[in-house]
Specification:
With about 375 residues, the protein is α/β, with parallel strands linked by helices. It has helices spanning about 20-30, 65-75, 95-100, 120-130, 140-150, 175-185, 210-220, 240-250, 265-270, 290-300, 330-345, 345-360, 365-380; strands at about 1-5, 35-45, 50-55, 55-60, 85-90, 105-110, 135, 155-160, 195-200, 225-230, 260, 280, 305, 320-325. The strands form 2 sheets. Strands 3-4-2-1-5-6-7-8 form an 8-stranded mixed sheet, with helices on both faces. Strands 11-10-9-12-13-14 form a 6-stranded parallel sheet, with helices on both faces. α7 (about 210-220) packs across α11 (about 330-345).
């Protein structure tokens, strides 16, 4: 079956500049391309050709300084000979494509709360739902939000959790994981025994300042710990704004070392997860479900996250892989759990091993692809 993937206007595929959606597409393509002929439409990038065939996947990359310009450029090259057009995270584009495509079926993959009133008018949302064959969401949180606003979407909603390359991410106790840790500690000039790892874009809604304030408390009572912050203000670069400047100023007041790595490309990020003894996700907003949870699990790290949005769907007590904090904006709550894990390394390792086991069992890209293949097969039979 011929399928077109329409990526968002923000970043290119492959994920040379990062991006959760772009990494999601990269992860599933090797599996899906064995069964279907897929063309991926995405944003152009200086390091990538505007069109290429690679690993049985056709890539078409177009320019666009705005969402409108981008989708118009996509539509200029999108013919009506696809059986399915699968749109990522842009329900507003469904009615537009429906008008220009007479034959193709349309489906939607949602990675954020794109159906809230601030994002889409009610009438357009209804039109979108009526014109798609199915909707996948990366969390139950996203699906429930759509269902509450638009009950007519109920039978079209399918939760398909994201995934991770469990072979690329080495467990922290493996030989390769230990080598990665030692090499990066030397590179980053970290001498402390214990490392708290935070991998994220640097923004208030990601709670970057909360992490630093929590570590300020931790470092007041112990001198064996360092904080490593992997990420930048935005994907693909190290631009600085007032908020990131404030983070650097706060870091300078801490008694222990804080290392900012800046942007690390997806091709290198896996090794950095072996640095940590404890992993933190400090989402302050209703996070759809941050993909760093899957990466931390694959690396065998105990996780401290927030009970915001969909995060707690993959980090919960019965999974035994970490803690989801209800008191999500309180640095003291984070500090208490960080100290607990550092003071109880046997329990922390057990949580990490449970997370690794869970990642291998439930969150590999093969499972994600198989979930999607079942939905695609329904279209193929129509």
């Amino acid at each position: 079956m011929k399928i077109a993937f329409i990526c968002t206007e923000k970043l290119p595929v492959p994920a040379v500049s990062g991006g959760a959606i772009q990494q999601y597409i990269d992860g599933i393509l090797p599996y899906l391309s064995k069964h279907h002929k897929i063309t991926v439409f995405s944003k152009d990038h200086p390091s990538l050709p505007n069109e290429e065939e690679k690993n049985s996947v056709h890539y078409i990359r177009v320019s666009g300084n705005s969402a409108e310009e981008y989708i118009n450029n996509v539509m200029a090259q999108l013919t009506d000979n696809y059986k399915l057009v699968h749109i990522f995270n842009r329900p507003l584009w469904v009615p537009l494509l429906r008008q220009s495509l007479e034959k193709a079926k349309i489906s939607l993959s949602l990675h954020n709360e794109m159906f809230i009133p601030e994002k889409i008018p009610y009438e357009t949302a209804i039109e979108c739902i009526e014109n798609v064959e199915f909707i996948t969401t990366v969390s139950q949180f996203i699906a429930d939000g759509i269902r509450k606003l638009y009950p007519i979407a109920d039978k079209k909603l399918n939760v398909v959790y994201s995934g991770v390359d469990v072979d690329k991410y080495q467990s922290s106790w493996s030989k390769q994981g230990i080598e990665n840790r030692n090499r990066l500690k030397s590179k980053l000039e970290i001498e402390k025994d214990k490392i708290i790892l935070y991998v994220s874009r640097l923004s208030p809604k990601k709670g970057s300042d909360i992490v630093l304030k929590a570590m300020e408390i931790v470092m007041e009572i112990r001198n064996d710990v360092a904080l490593v912050i992997v990420g930048s203000k935005w994907y693909g670069g190290n631009e600085v704004d007032q908020y990131t400047q404030s983070l650097n100023m706060l870091a300078e007041t801490l008694k222990g070392p804080v290392v900012f790595t800046g942007f690390v490309p997806p091709s290198e990020i896996a090794d950095y997860f072996n640095l940590g003894d404890v992993f933190i996700c400090a989402s302050q907003w209703e996070e759809p479900l941050a993909r760093v949870h899957y990466e931390a699990m694959a690396a065998g790290l105990p996780i401290i996250t927030t009970n915001r949005g969909g995060n707690a769907e993959v980090v919960k007590q019965e999974y035994g892989n970490g803690i989801a904090l209800d008191d999500y904006s309180n640095p003291n709550a984070f500090a208490d759990k960080i100290n607990y894990f550092l003071d109880n390394p046997t329990e922390a390792v057990a949580l990490g091993k449970a997370g690794r086991k869970l990642a291998v069992k439930k969150y590999g890209w093969d499972r994600v692809a198989n979930n999607l293949l079942k939905l695609f097969d329904r279209i193929q039979k129509k």
